[in-house]
Amino acid sequence: MDESLIELEISKTFSLQKSNSIRLRESTSDYRIKQLENLLDWIKTHLDDIRKAIHADFKKPYSEIDISEIFTVTSEIKYVIKNLNDWMEPKKVSRSLALLGTSSYIQYEPKGTSLIIAPWNYPFNLAIGPLVSALAAGCTAIIKPSEMTPHASALIRRMIEELYEPDTVAVFEGEVEISQYLLSKPFDHIFFTGSPNVGKIIMKAAAENLSSVTLELGGKSPAIIDKDVDLLDAASKVIWGKFVNCGQTCIAPDYVLVHQDIQLPFVNALNDEITKMYNPKNKGIEHSNDYARIVNDKHLVRLNSLLSDAISKGAKVEFGGKINVNENFFEPTILTEVSENMDVLNEEIFGPILPIVNYVDIHEAIRFVNSKPKPLALYVFSNNENSINTILNKTSSGGAVTNDCVIHFLHHELPFGGINNSGIGKAHGHHGFLAFSNEKAVLKQRVGLTSSKSLYPPYGFTGKKITSFLLKWF
Ligand code: NAD
């Protein structure tokens, strides 16, 4: 479609959603649950379509699609359906003595119109997960999926068109220009998942309309391996967390900090785990159906230059390093002897390269983490509760997991998100519902102290008496 026609279509859809969002303020939990049930039914009856579309984009293995794209969404929908009545219920709050005679509660009203901008790495999960929260909160939504995964984006569009009227949910596919045009509209809430650099652009655009934002961003999530650790267990979990989706996961361990006394056995264990998971029959990782591809050549080139930069500055390749440009294949790669002047230790890697940094004591590892922007996730592998607590208490990250990685994403009751450079606001479950809701403070006056009007001008004796009483006792 011609760009100006798309702009026209966006303006028309935005106006329709604006009007509908006012009607939706009074939408019941039954209505919202029905919308979510329809979504769940569609997903369940189109599992193969979803798998094929996502696989077509970058050969994500079907098992990974099932767990990380489909299950994440269906379990979220079920959890929301189960709890929505309770979340929508106004919450009574107690009052202080100064407001005696009044009653107050928090009313959860939908923010209104919302815009969901999604990335390519989990194209279904990261577009539809936020939609579940938007529908639960009673918002309308326009979704802008990533242009880098055209098959998944087309499937999302088809699903939404089959399920919803455009005044409730609509999809606009396209490049950055479409995103920019959408951002010029005064949405009530913008839910963006993507890189910190684009997150800044989104926040600036949102500021023009004072739209609230949830920014789910990225960064460099460390995995810290203590000396006192179950080495083989830690190695297999780090390898799975790092190389699932070919390293293109926002919460993948970006780099490892390992105690220097165990670096050698740990690296050997990492190498063994890669072989066990991706090359069990010794046919070559390239032939494994369980290993995805890099999303496009632009990212392959970016990753290749990260690797070249590291090697040229003295990094040692302990495993991998092989690339096939015709296939967008990038072998799982482990690097040691890395130093701070290398790009791999400064940029978010977002691909299958794992640099290993060693430390001599836990405080050195903590200093290293704290010298970088706050990460989206932090992983600690240790049998020592003291070391774990020291690390958790002395670092700041959006989320943290001990003796495992990545799986906190699946927990509906944990707020998911980053802090500062890795994100603003939280998603999932109740936290997602709140992100799309306005917590309206409602105070109902009845016969309270303040209704006597003795505190109004002209300020007289009774008013002064009441104020000094309040100052003295409250
Ligand atoms: P990206 O920021 O390049 O793009 C994300 C979306 O923003 C896409 O839909 C894209 O079209 C749009 N976009 C790009 N440039 C834009 C601009 N100038 N103006 C307006 N819109 C623009 O991110 P990506 O490459 O798709 O995804 C990778 C990044 O996302 C990584 O940094 C990763 O860590 C992060 N991420 C975070 C999470 C999370 O939950 N926190 C999840 C997945 C990915």
From TrEMBL:
Top-level taxon of the source organism: Bacteria
One Pfam match: Aldedh
Alphabetic keyword roster: NAD, Oxidoreductase
Database matches in Gene3D superfamilies: Aldehyde Dehydrogenase, Chain A, domain 1, Aldehyde Dehydrogenase, Chain A, domain 2
Active site: 216
KW Methyltransferase (keyword) present: no
Domain Aldehyde dehydrogenase: 24-442
Matching CDD domains: ALDH_AlkH-like (cd07134)
Matches recorded under SUPFAM superfamilies: ALDH-like
Tagged with keyword Kinase: no
Family as reported in the entry's similarity comment: Belongs to the aldehyde dehydrogenase family.
PANTHER family: ALDEHYDE DEHYDROGENASE (PTHR43570), ALDEHYDE DEHYDROGENASE ALDX-RELATED (PTHR43570:SF20)
Entry protein name: Aldehyde dehydrogenase
